Amino acid sequence: MKPRRTGRGRPKRSLGQNFLVDPNLRRKIAAAVGAGEGEPVLEIGAGRGALTDHLVQARVALTAVELDDELAPELAARYRHDPRTRVVHGDVLSLDLPNLTADWTATRVVGNIPYNITTPIIFKLLASPFPADIVLTMQAEVAARILAGPGSRTYGALSVGVAVHAEATRVCRVPRGAFRPVPKVDSVALRITPRVPQEVDAAAARRVRTLTRAAFSWRRKQLGKILHRHPDLRCAPADVERALAERSLLPSIRPEQLSADEYVALSRILRPAVRPPGRRLR
Question: Domain 13-194: what homologous superfamily?
Answer without folding.
Answer: Vaccinia Virus protein VP39 (3.40.50.150)
